[in-house]
């Protein structure tokens, strides 16, 4: 089956799967050579990974300026077709929701051109139910896991594969991540599907579950993100938030100060660069944060 | 006699404080950091114990802190420099609410609550332009001893604007300013302001006093004034500011059951 | 009275001003010597070199009194609209309504330069978590905190989506401080897919009709907010009149650019032309006076062209300038290094292009908004820049990277590559902070080297 590469949480995997293609959500590793100064390490790593992929197509979204622009850089570097999907920053208007739905339809046509097929409503419903059950299982597993250390929320921008180590560093420091609220973690899973609506309007339900309900720093206004973190802090009994963002990522950086002001628990603002030697510095901060909370 | 040790293995220097069970400092020492961190720390510790007429067997708990804390083999436990500086400063000034620590390679801001517990902190170890390293570069470029920078800056009429986030490029800016005939006093004052304004940004808009200035850079004349100007608030320099981390580590060693 | 064009210092302007007054200079209400703005804190003025014409004096005085005009308008009962980021669209709508004055808070990005950091706006932004990794427009955040540089708007709008992340994040912080913002979506402009109806946009861009329709819907939301503010509906006739007034400003600017950027010797300095272009955005605090200011400048340029007079050395290297520069002094520096401006792209060519008048007004504005070079692919912006470089006959290009701006890191490379590949023209990328004095020697070396390359190529 042909694979379609993407990384953004606003791209519904079930839509690609229902079209008969293999959704391949990618966690990029590291940047290649030749990226100019000032590029966010995640965007740089994504460009490198996408430019060397074997997938038959790449989906990029407009969640941030640098990812939007990465689409044309990838197109210039490789032959793989690239689809740039508009994900509106505004999210409370019917017009924005319609734009997102229209973009899904446009993505569908792009996938058909790649050899996919427009799914029947029944096929789409079946695929959505499959993915919904997988996500339900993941949520249930997360909820039953008992924290071994100080309960913490890890929030912030997306993680590269080389950044996953932060979970180990938090454990080393005596903490446990009770919620992965990074862009790509549990926070950005779509909402469970409304079964009643699913039967009558699967495409509409798919669009709403993703577009209307995923909190993200790029949203304007951004209150969904703050409300989500406030709610989950209490629900998960978390004692603090480790907020991790990349250097040159303005979208997630912009939220750091306000989260510190508004959340009812301490927030550790961690800036990640593209330097392996960061590890010791990151560990010191996390240890100090845990010491502080203890 | 039971003795507790705090070892601050920083990136530039190693500091050790020995403390008795009543919290009195028995001995303290500081030495420049080297390649062999472990050997240097052990040698310094042994030397200090010897001068105090003590043996290793007199040692109770040993707490290591600082950048190389995990390398100190004689430590019973490690605690970060955030917690240790807070403990060290609070012993001197129990009413302290904000601590600014500027070292050779990094800078820290620690906010304390009304009980003296760490409430929040921020660290800068990415941008050398916010650390003592910047002062060293400037002193070298201007061929002025580090401890004479403060006096020189006192003669500034209009501090230069140093804009670069990167000390390498800032060095280029300084060369440019010199080439343009800018007075050295203005350049030094500009650099001091560049460092302290970055620290002020880390502190945020609502710093609570008393604000205690610690770390090696607090000993550089003029930096306290520059920091006070950037903050628009009064500051106090900690006693023996380069030792507060080790002091705090020793306090925590003694307090830990 | 000596009317020979020259670039003079602030001190020389003092003397010149007295001479002009003695010779019967007639000034508008906001007139006066340039030096008076120094007392207001605009200390950078002491380090710039200015055109010596009365038209240039009026231009500077107009620019530096926008705050006074806004406060006067507020005192007279007008509603103040702060339009953020769109650079040219919402202001046209706002100014189409009676008793409404609009401005762009974005303009605060030059305050740190003009006041040589004296206002402390960047320090305030720093303390709120917006450090040097953000573009200098973070000064706007400080300006909202102090409330000292413009009156608090009655209505605040901001275009988001495909605009830059810096701005969006900063505006979000402003909203979190209690300023309600009408967010409107500027989607990433794309070429029409198969089966979609293409629409030609100003600037040579093409987009599908569905995107134009979407933007039109977003602008209608802004119009509804304006109606709520004023109690009056913005109808097509009002909007058509507003577009006509905006087009009048734009037409003068296009003529001024065409003359100033092509005539030899260069009839008007880079700095005054930069300020003049800014009126494409900042005209809205007084449209009538903006036109008068620009007409005066155009007359002066025409006079000089007819007389074969100019301010730059004959044979100066013809430079196309991309992005506004954070430190105005750099524009002087280019000329001191032997260059002159032959074409610019300061991120708002869509505010200079004519707004279509042969279609329904809101449709026209939607097309205009979608023609913003920032919200489409960098390659599209680069293509337009290449066209303009050819049109103006520039021999080299300077890309002035905006420090910290999220779009510049990738976009600069795309634009530079396209210019080199398509035109074979040398390109220099620089990055300047709001105060670049300490970088002056390195900037000078780079600009002089670019000029030398051009001159060797000519030779």
Instruction: Give the proportion of residues in helices of chain B.
Output: 25-40%
Give the averaged pLDDT of chain B, no decimals: 86
Tally the helices of chain B. 8
Overall, the morphology of chain C is globular
Task: Write up this protein.
The complex is a heterotrimer of chains A (294), B (257) and C (459). Chain A is of the alpha/beta class. Chain A has two domains: 3-122, Rossmann fold, CATH 3.40.50.11890; 147-293, 3-Layer(aba) Sandwich (Rossmann fold). Chain A contains eleven helices and eight strands. In chain A, strands 2-1-3-4 form a four-stranded parallel beta sheet, with helices on both faces. In chain A, helix 2 (41-51) runs parallel beside helix 3 (65-77) and helix 6 (166-172) packs across helix 11. Chain A is globular, with a radius of gyration of 19 Å. The N and C termini of chain A lie far apart (51 Å). Chain B is α/β, with parallel strands linked by helices. Chain B folds into two domains: 3-87 and 243-255, Nucleotidyltransferase, domain 5; 94-237, Nucleotidyltransferase, domain 5 (2-Layer Sandwich), CATH 3.30.420. Chain B has a five-stranded mixed beta sheet with strand order 3-2-1-4-5. In chain B, strands 8-7-6-9-10 form a five-stranded mixed beta sheet, with helices on both faces. In chain B, helix 3 (132-142) packs antiparallel against helix 6. The radius of gyration of chain B is 19 Å and the shape is globular. The relative contact order of chain B is 0.19. Chain C is built from 18 helices and twelve strands. Chain C has helices at 10-22, 36-39, 54-63, 66-75, 90-94, 111-114, 121-127, 139-146, 165-176, 209-230, 236-262, 270-282, 287-307, 329-336, 361-370, 378-392, 408-423, 440-458; strands spanning 7-8, 50-51, 79-84, 100-103, 155-161, 182-186, 198-200, 206-208, 317-322, 339-345, 396-402, 427-432. A four-stranded parallel beta sheet of chain C has the order 4-3-5-6, sandwiched between helices. In chain C, helix 3 (54-63) crosses helix 12 (270-282) and helix 3 packs antiparallel against helix 13. Chain C is globular. The two termini of chain C are 39 Å apart. The interface between A and C is large, with 43 and 47 residues.
């Amino acid at each position: 089956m042909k694979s379609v590469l993407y990384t953004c949480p606003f791209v519904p995997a079930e839509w690609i799967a229902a079209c008969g293609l293999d959704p391949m959500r990618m966690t990029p590793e590291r940047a290649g050579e030749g990226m100019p100064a000032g590029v966010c390490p995640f965007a740089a790593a994504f460009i490198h990974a996408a430019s060397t992929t074997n997938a038959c197509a790449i989906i990029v979204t407009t969640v941030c300026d640098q990812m939007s622009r990465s689409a044309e850089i990838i197109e210039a570097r490789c032959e793989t077709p690239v689809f740039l999907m508009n994900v509106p920053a505004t999210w409370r208007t019917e017009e924005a929701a319609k734009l997102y739905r229209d973009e899904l339809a446009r993505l569908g046509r792009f996938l058909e051109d790649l050899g996919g097929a427009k799914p029947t409503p029944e096929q789409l419903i079946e695929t959505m139910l499959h993915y919904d059950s997988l996500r339900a299982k993941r949520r249930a597993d997360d909820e039953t896991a008992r924290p071994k250390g100080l309960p913490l929320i890890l929030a912030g921008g997306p993680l590269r594969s080389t950044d996953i180590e932060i979970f180990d560093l938090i454990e080393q420091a005596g903490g446990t991540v009770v919620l992965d609220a990074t862009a790509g973690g549990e926070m950005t899973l779509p909402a469970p599907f409304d079964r009643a609506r699913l039967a009558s309007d699967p495409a509409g339900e798919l669009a709403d579950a993703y577009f209307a309900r995923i909190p993200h720093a790029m949203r304007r206004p951004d209150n969904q993100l703050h409300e989500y973190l406030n709610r989950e802090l209490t629900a998960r009994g978390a004692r603090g938030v480790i907020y991790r963002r990349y250097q040159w990522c303005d979208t997630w950086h912009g939220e750091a100060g306000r989260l510190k002001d508004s959340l009812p628990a301490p927030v550790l603002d961690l800036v990640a660069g593209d330097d392996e030697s960061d590890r010791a510095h990151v560990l010191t901060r996390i240890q100090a944060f845990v010491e502080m909370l203890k | 006699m039971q003795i507790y040790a705090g070892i601050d293995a920083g990136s530039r220097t190693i500091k050790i404080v020995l403390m008795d069970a009543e919290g009195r400092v028995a001995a303290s020492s500081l030495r420049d950091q080297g390649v062999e961190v472990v050997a240097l720390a052990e040698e310094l510790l042994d030397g200090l114990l010897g001068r105090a007429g003590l043996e290793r067997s007199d040692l109770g708990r040993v707490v290591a802190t600082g950048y190389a804390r995990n390398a100190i083999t004689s430590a019973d436990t490690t605690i970060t420099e955030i917690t240790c500086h807070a403990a060290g400063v609070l012993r001197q000034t129990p009413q302290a609410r904000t601590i600014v620590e500027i070292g050779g390679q990094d800078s820290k801001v620690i906010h304390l609550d009304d009980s003296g517990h760490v409430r929040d902190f921020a660290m800068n170890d990415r941008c050398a332009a916010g650390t003592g390293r910047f002062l060293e570069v400037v002193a070298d470029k201007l061929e002025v001893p580090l401890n004479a920078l403060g006096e020189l800056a006192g003669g500034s009429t209009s501090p230069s604007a140093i804009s670069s986030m990167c000390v390498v490029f800032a060095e280029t800016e300084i060369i440019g300013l010199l080439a343009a005939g800018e007075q050295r006093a203005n350049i030094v004052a500009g650099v001091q302001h560049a460092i302290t304004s970055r620290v002020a940004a880390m502190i945020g808009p609502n710093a609570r006093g008393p604000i205690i200035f610690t770390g090696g850079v607090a000993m550089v004349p003029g930096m306290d004034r520059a920091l006070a100007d950037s903050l628009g608030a009064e500051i106090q320099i900690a006693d023996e500011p380069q030792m507060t981390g080790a002091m705090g580590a020793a306090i925590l060693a003694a307090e830990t059951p | 009275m000596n009317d020979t064009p020259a670039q003079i210092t602030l001190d020389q302007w003092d003397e010149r001003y007295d001479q002009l007054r003695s010779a019967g200079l007639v000034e508008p209400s906001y007139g006066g010597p340039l030096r008076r703005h120094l007392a207001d804190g605009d200390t950078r003025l002491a380090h710039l070199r200015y055109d010596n014409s009365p038209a240039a004096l009026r231009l500077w005085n107009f620019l530096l009194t926008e705050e006074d005009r806004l406060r006067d308008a507020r005192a007279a009962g007008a509603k103040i609209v702060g339009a953020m980021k769109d650079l040219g669209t919402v202001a046209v709508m706002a100014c189409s309504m009676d008793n409404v004055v609009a401005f762009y808070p974005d303009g605060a990005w030059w305050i740190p330069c003009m006041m040589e950091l004296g206002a402390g706006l960047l320090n305030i932004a720093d303390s709120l978590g917006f450090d040097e990794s953000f573009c200098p427009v973070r000064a706007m955040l400080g300006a909202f905190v102090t409330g000292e540089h413009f009156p608090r708007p009655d209505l605040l709008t901001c275009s988001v989506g495909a605009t830059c992340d810096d701005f969006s994040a900063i505006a979000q912080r402003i909203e979190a401080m209690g300023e309600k913002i009408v967010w409107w979506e500027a989607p990433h402009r794309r070429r029409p897919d198969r089966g979609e109806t293409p629409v030609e946009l100003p600037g040579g861009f093409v987009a599908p009709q569905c995107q134009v329709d979407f933007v039109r819907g977003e602008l209608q939301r802004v119009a509804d907010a304006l109606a709520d503010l004023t109690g009056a509906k913005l109808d097509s006739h009002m909007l058509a009149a507003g577009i006509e007034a905006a087009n009048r400003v734009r037409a003068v600017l296009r003529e001024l650019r065409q003359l100033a950027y092509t005539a030899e010797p260069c009839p008007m300095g880079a700095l005054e032309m930069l300020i003049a272009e800014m009126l494409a955005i900042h005209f809205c605090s007084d449209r009538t006076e903006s036109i008068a200011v620009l007409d005066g400048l155009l007359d002066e340029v025409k006079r000089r062209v007819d007389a074969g007079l100019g301010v730059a050395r004959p044979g100066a290297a013809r430079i196309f300038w991309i992005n506004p520069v954070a430190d105005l002094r750099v524009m002087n520096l280019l000329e001191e290094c032997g260059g002159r401006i032959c074409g610019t792209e300061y991120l708002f060519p869509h505010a200079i292009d004519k707004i279509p008048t042969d279609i329904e007004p809101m449709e026209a504005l939607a097309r205009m908004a979608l023609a913003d070079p920032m919200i489409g692919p960098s390659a599209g912006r680069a293509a337009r820049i290449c066209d303009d470089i050819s049109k103006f006959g520039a021999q080299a290009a300077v890309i002035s990277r905006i420090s910290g701006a999220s779009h510049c890191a990738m976009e600069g490379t795309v634009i530079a590559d396209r210019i080199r590949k398509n035109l074979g023209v040398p390109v220099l990328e620089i990055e300047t902070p709001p105060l670049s004095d300490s970088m002056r020697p390195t900037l000078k070396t780079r600009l002089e080297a670019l000029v030398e390359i051009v001159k060797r190529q000519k030779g």
